[in-house]
Design goal:
alpha+beta, seven-stranded antiparallel beta sheet, 30% helix
Length: 454
Amino acid sequence: MSTISLENLRPCLEGIIPAQLATVSADGIPNTTYVSQVDYVDARHVAVSFQFFNKTRENILAHPQAEVVVIHPVTAASYRLRLRYLRTETAGKVFERMKARLAGIASHTGMAGIFLLKGADIYEVEGIERIPGKELPDAPAARSLAPALRAATERIAAAQDLDSLFEATLLALRAEFDIAHAMVLMWDAAARKLFTVASHGYAVSGVGSEICLGEGVIGVAAEHLTPIRIPHFTTEFGYGRAIREEALQSELQAQVQQQIPFPGLDKPQCQLAAPITARGRLLGVLYVESPIDSRFNYDHEDILVSLALQLGLSMILLDAGGEPESPVVPVRETAPAGEPITVRHYQTDDSIFVGEDYLIKGVAGAILWRLLRVNQRAGRSDFSNRELRLDTSLRLPDIDDNLEARLILLRRRLEERCNWLALEKTGRGRFSMRLDRPVRLVEVGGEEDTGRPD
């Protein structure tokens, strides 16, 4: 092994400049090809993506020696790595990481199901040689991110509830790492979708927008429970635009009206998604992006994974704090005055329309409909998380119901769309509904609510 450290060559393994892999057949005929991924495994090993059974594959199985040339994306310095093929992995951490990254790129380019990873070929690096040639000056040394990580974890650890936890996370990314575009998405196990619950750096918050499992960088990171970083990728369409155009082409006009625009950049040059997990369970995804090429490196990936893990642990700890056992006492209050606003509830998907405008759907929509009905029938505006969990009509899952996250989502959507209706926290596990206008409730798929108490 040469004195050049493989660790110091990690910028060359980002895939910004394609690597060239050279092999030789059993009868001595050489072959070179470009490879999509040369992945750092540890100080003595790399993994090369195996996607097709081609000449390279045939050669390496017959003659396990190979050489790969990698190029530094800033200095243009070239390095030749002498490799010895050891094995092909079709499962495990390295394989899943490479598979997820390839699937994330394929999903964004519309090539899902075509760019498939068959295996991760593991090679031992037997030597590293610097190839003579003209080089450019290296970039200035980056600042240490350790102090920023410490400050970020302190912010997150100080959060007292889920709402402040999300805000602390986004604030830490902006203040400590100068990351201008970020969002937190929560996992809805029943719908098998992720929904945006908090974001910063966008013209619209996108709270309530959804991503399906396996869709794009975010959905693939969630599906494989592994971080995905695409340091130099440019997507032709942003999430929201792509979803909307696909729906239009399918003539699903009604569904388009119910799409909350995804807040992502139209053309991100760099993307990084880390799954939020706890005890092996998916809770959500922490996602950052940038319009600057190669904005996030492997250090940023390690940082985001660390923050996502702490976020997941904090969510579990906050949820374990329990809720008040005392019931909410029904109190009839004075009805608001003014012209009634029509609120429609569609039973098929629990979507809510205020007037002609779409507001929310799913469990959050079912919760709002329940609150409005109770308020109209019993004149009550104080509620608790506990009573919502006990209400079987809401169809909350037995585990991972994410009730608090759904209430945060609902509250923020109301702040953006309905200045006359708000949910306000009054204590741990308690909140009140402020209603400044009378409402006329209409059930679509059922009978119209007359407003008379049961």
